[in-house]
């Protein structure tokens, strides 16, 4: 079961594309301020404040008292509410409080103050996907991994519909002894072991649906006969159906406050989750040292918790990626080999294949007149008397407007609506439940029908037919148009997104109890969270970086036709569209070699990027200072993908791999690259004699005869043994490999 696009940090709005609230950037209290009116200066705002930790030995109450010492003498604001809203002990040392700007300036003068950020609102960004990912009940890797039993997935979302059958605990053992959380829901059991609301209400009930969808996608139990009103019928399950679920309600249908997200993450770390799944994010990338989520996630990975995040729904625009810190596993969204087929039969004998969330058992064969008008191109036809009995052809806009516009047309007697994509969406059709009589098409097919409607001399007519669910669709997967693209702004030398997973038209649990089909990187994220849980179940001692490496280096770069994975326009997808490739769970469980990273490795990278101030803010380890650490450029981080400058001058990066396969094994380097890219690997052979042994190698890349318009060139390096292929993309891109960008305030 997979989710759509809402939760993900930028929303498509549960089945649709979102219009997320822009994130605000914090202005340092040390920076010059613009003169403001007295009214503005005295207004209360919510701030997340990072401070030095209290004296050793402080318990949770001790932390709370310590944080109160930073606040004004009055701990109650003008509204009568406490100033201190949230206390954090795990994600970082700090708190959320309501302060005026003048009060924040006073807090910042405390010598133990570190940083402060204004609170922001972020946005929420199947029956078939386990099979599409090669997971079959009772056999192979899924069975070997015990379906993720013993692993706890924590989801930060809109809550959960606890009584849904997807959260039944048949076959699920009690949680491990390390679990410290609690559950207060309509039904708590061995599947749903934790619920906590951080949004001010007393319950974890999911009024939005997003959290129910993502939770069931990650770890829902097996349910037969699942469908969305008869569409997509089959046996539904999450990717790790044996895993435990802990839900932290940090979002409402209005969005997700960063301060509340951090409270949920803090609680999840205390409770003992193994995987954190965040299908949410900001509209744009935020510098890691200014992003509480990235800072809190660093604390999580330092405790062995892998953090999986949505790449965002800002595609297909380049550099739209969010959640791009190297310690996060950032997930892009693609299609699966399933469509919900609907045909538009034209009077000229042509059939146009579209899709619809409609099951019609006895479709009418009666043709209806087609109506298309450039003046009313977007379904906003005010002359409703003119639409009666006609099929209206129009172009999609935003889902919120589209629902009301189509409802008005149908209420005015329209026989149906043909809704076609804008050009940017290409071949991606993100389905929405517009009810019967609406067929969605690609932009190309929409233009074809519009041209026919305008030019038919004897009157254009059309008939709809519905063929329901079709499997084996080719090519699949295809990168969805809404999926955010790299490279990132902050550390372009680290390839983002990391991985591609199912995120288009995903069916999963919904309050009701029912199932719903929606789309988004929100849906792709829990697929990878489930895969991470399966790997954690098999390899409980692996670090978050090792699990990420296993997922990336074993991913698929070809589709079900044996060709390269395509983008939304059916051109070859780049690494900035799909990351390392499409997730392959069975191979990820046995990668052979992994590229591991420790907290100290990341600390060296943070020193290069932000210096000591960044180290204090993000790593918060007094034993580490930039003076004692080597500064590690983004391109030299021991990441499982390789990024180098696009230049004719040879550039060398160094990587270290750890043997997690057979004790005695030999790997040979295999390079695939275009003629313009020269790659040399030294040594060309790696010989291991024991498990856990490490080997270091160098990769030198130069690019010749590259056109001035080319921004990047791609190749790959694979380490090949008798049993394993460990593949890493090589991306040569302009503008990387030099000095760190100037630190943001």
UniProtKB/TrEMBL annotation:
Q: Which InterPro entries match?
A: Peptidase_S8/S53_dom, Peptidase_S8/S53_dom_sf, Peptidase_S8_Asp-AS, Peptidase_S8_Ser-AS, Peptidase_S8_subtilisin-rel, Peptidases_S8_3, S8pro/Inhibitor_I9, S8pro/Inhibitor_I9_sf
GO molecular function terms attached to this record: serine-type endopeptidase activity
Task: For this entry, list what GO says about its biological process.
Answer: proteolysis
The reply to whether Protein biosynthesis figures as a keyword in the UniProt entry is no
Say yes or no: keyword Hydrolase present.
yes
Please list the residue ranges annotated as the Inhibitor I9 domain: 46-125
Q: What family name appears in the similarity comment? A: Belongs to the peptidase S8 family.
Q: What span is annotated as the signal peptide, if there is one?
A: 1-23
Residues annotated as catalytic: 157, 210, 522
Q: Which residues form a coiled coil?
A: none
Q: Identify the residues that the record assigns to the Peptidase S8/S53 domain, covering every copy.
A: 148-571
Q: Which Pfam families match?
A: fn3_6, Inhibitor_I9, Peptidase_S8
Q: Where in the cell is it found?
A: Secreted
Subtilisin-like protease fibronectin type-III domain location: 636-731
GO cellular component terms given for this protein? extracellular region
User: What protein name applies here?
Assistant: Subtilisin-like protease
Q: Which UniProt keywords are present, listed alphabetically?
A: Glycoprotein, Hydrolase, Protease, Serine protease, Signal
């Amino acid at each position: 079961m997979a989710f759509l696009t809402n939760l993900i940090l930028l929303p498509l709005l549960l089945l649709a594309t979102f219009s997320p609230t822009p994130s605000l950037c914090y202005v340092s209290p040390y920076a010059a301020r613009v003169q403001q009116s007295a009214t503005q200066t005295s207004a209360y705002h919510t701030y997340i404040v990072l401070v030095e930790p209290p004296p050793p030995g402080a318990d949770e109450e001790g932390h709370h008292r310590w944080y109160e010492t930073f606040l004004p003498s009055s701990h109650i604001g003008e509204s009568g509410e406490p100033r201190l809203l949230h206390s954090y002990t795990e994600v970082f040392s700090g708190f959320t409080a309501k302060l005026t700007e003048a009060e924040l300036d006073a807090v910042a003068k405390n010598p133990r103050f570190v940083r402060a950020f204004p609170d922001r609102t972020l946005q929420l960004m199947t029956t078939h996907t386990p099979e599409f990912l090669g997971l079959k009940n009772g056999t192979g890797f899924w069975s070997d991994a015990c379906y993720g039993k013993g692993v706890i997935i924590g989801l930060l979302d809109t809550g959960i519909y606890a009584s849904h059958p997807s959260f039944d605990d048949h076959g699920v053992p009690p949680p491990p002894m390390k679990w410290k959380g609690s559950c207060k829901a309509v039904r708590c059991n061995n599947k749903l072991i934790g619920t906590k609301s951080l949004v001010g209400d007393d319950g974890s009930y999911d009024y939005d649906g997003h959290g129910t969808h993502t939770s069931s996608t990650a770890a829902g139990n097996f349910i037969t006969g699942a469908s969305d009103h008869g569409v997509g019928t089959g046996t539904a399950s999450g990717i790790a159906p044996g895993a435990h679920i802990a839900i932290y309600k940090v979002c409402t249908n209005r969005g997700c406050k960063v301060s509340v997200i951090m409270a949920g993450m803090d609680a999840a770390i205390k409770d003992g989750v193994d995987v954190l799944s965040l299908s949410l994010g900001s509209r744009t990338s935020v510098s890691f040292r200014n992003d509480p989520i990235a800072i809190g996630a660093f604390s999580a990975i330092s405790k062995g918790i892998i953090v999986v995040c949505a790449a965002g729904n800002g595609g297909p625009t380049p550099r739209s990626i969010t959640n791009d810190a190297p310690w996060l596993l950032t997930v892009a969204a693609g299609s699966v080999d399933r469509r919900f087929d609907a045909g538009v039969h034209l009077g000229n004998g042509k059939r146009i294949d579209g899709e619809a969330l409609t099951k019609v058992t006895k479709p009418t064969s009666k043709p209806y007149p087609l109506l298309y008008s450039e003046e009313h191109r977007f379904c906003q036809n005010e002359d409703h008397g003119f639409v009666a009995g006609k099929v209206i052809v129009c172009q999609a806009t935003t889902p919120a407007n589209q629902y009301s516009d189509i409802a008005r047309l149908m209420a005015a007697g329209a026989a149906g609506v043909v809704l076609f994509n804008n050009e940017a969406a290409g071949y991606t059709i993100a389905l929405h439940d517009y009810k019967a009589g609406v067929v969605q098409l690609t932009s190309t097919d929409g233009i074809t029908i519009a041209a026919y409607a305008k030019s038919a001399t004897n009157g254009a007519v059309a008939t709809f037919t519905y063929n329901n669910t079709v499997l084996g669709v080719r090519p699949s997967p295809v990168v969805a148009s809404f999926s955010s693209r790299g490279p990132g702004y902050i550390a372009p030398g680290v390839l983002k997104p990391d991985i591609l997973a199912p995120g288009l038209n995903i069916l999963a649990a919904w309050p009701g109890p029912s199932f719903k089909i929606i789309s988004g990187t929100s849906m792709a994220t829990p697929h990878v969270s489930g895969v991470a849980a399966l790997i954690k179940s098999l390899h409980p001692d692996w670090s978050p970086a090792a699990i990420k490496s296993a997922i990336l280096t074993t991913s698929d770069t070809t589709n079900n036709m044996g060709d390269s994975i395509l983008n939304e326009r059916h051109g070859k997808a780049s690494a900035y569209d799909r990351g390392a490739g499409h997730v392959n769970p069975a191979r990820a469980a046995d990668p052979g070699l992994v590229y591991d990273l420790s907290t100290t490795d990341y600390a060296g990278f943070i020193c290069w990027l932000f210096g000591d101030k960044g180290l204090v803010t993000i790593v918060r380890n007094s034993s580490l200072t930039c003076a004692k650490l080597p500064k590690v450029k983004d391109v030299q981080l021991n990441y499982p993908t390789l990024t180098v400058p696009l230049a004719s001058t040879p550039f060398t990066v160094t990587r270290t791999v750890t043997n997690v396969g057979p004790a005695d094994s030999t790997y040979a380097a295999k390079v695939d690259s275009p003629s313009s890219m020269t790659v040399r690997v030294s040594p060309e052979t790696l010989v291991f004699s024991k498990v856990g042994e490490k080997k270091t190698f160098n990769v030198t890349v130069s690019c010749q005869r590259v056109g001035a318009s080319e921004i990047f060139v791609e190749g790959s390096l694979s380490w090949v043994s008798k049993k394993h292929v460990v593949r890493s993309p090589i991306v040569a891109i302009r503008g990387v490999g030099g000095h760190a960008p100037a630190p943001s305030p």
